[in-house]
Design a protein that fits this description.
This protein is an all-alpha fold. 82% of the residues lie in helices and 0% in strands. It contains four helices and no strands.
Length: 106
């Protein structure tokens, strides 16, 4: 169950990272409220998951899920580069996330 909580925390990290773009430097009220809400949920869920998962593994997976998801949404929403090198790099991060999961006995 803690793995589900951890991945959910990573999804909320994607939400707040993308939300930061829409806050326009925290000058727009509702995007800012949504971003702060996503930050709080993300960190809260990360803390819950870390109760039984190794801190290094949990943090790396949380960051990895957030980084890969945010980069993909950057491509989709903001027309950021989808070069082969960038996509291969994202695949390597994803492989690292899977590797950490498989190497952790929790």
């Amino acid at each position: 169950m803690n793995w589900v909580i951890l991945v959910t925390a990573g999804l909320f990290e994607i939400g707040w990272a993308i939300g930061l773009k829409y806050t326009e430097g925290f000058t727009r009220l509702w995007p800012t409220v949504g971003t702060v809400f996503a930050m709080l949920i993300s960190l809260g869920l990360l803390g819950i998951a870390m109760k039984s998962l190794p801190v290094g593994t949990a943090y790396a997976i949380w960051v990895g899920v957030g980084a890969v998801g945010t980069a993909i949404l950057g491509i989709v929403l903001f027309d950021e580069s989808a070069s082969a090198a960038r996509l291969i790099s994202l695949a390597l991060i994803l492989a690292g996330i899977v590797g950490l999961k498989l190497a952790t006995h929790a």
